[in-house]
Amino acid sequence: MEKLSIQKSREIIGGKGMTGALLNGFGSITKSIGELFSNSIGTIATTVFTAISLNKVDKLDAKIGNSTFKADNSISNKAAIEAENNIPNVVNLF
Predict the structure, then answer these.
(1) What is the pLDDT of residues 2-21, one digit of tens each?
(2) Vertex 44: Cα angle to 62 and 65 (nearest 5)
(3) What gap in Å lies between CA 93 and CA 49, rounded to an integer?
(4) pTM beyond 0.90, yes or no
(5) Minimal CB count within 10 Å: which of 12, 64, 71, 79?
(6) Residue 3 lies in a domain
(7) Total domain count for the chain?
(8) Considering just the CA atoms, what is the radius of gyration of the chain in Å?
């Protein structure tokens, strides 16, 4: 075995392989991009679903992924039904 001199012990020889930190960084970036697409698709799907179903029901609670939407149309729907069923009084002039 050869004894190292002070000069040789100060030389730094770097490796040429990928480190675990670099691979972990790539994994984190890939995971973030996947979550971005997933949340975007969930938000669009929730918006479309609620737009289609909003006037068909009295109360709506939609949750897809991280997106949540709640609506309560029971009072306005009740007023619309009462307005439709309200028969006007006929005035008899004779």
Answers:
(1) 777 777 777 766 666 667 78
(2) 50
(3) 52
(4) no
(5) 12
(6) no
(7) 1
(8) 34
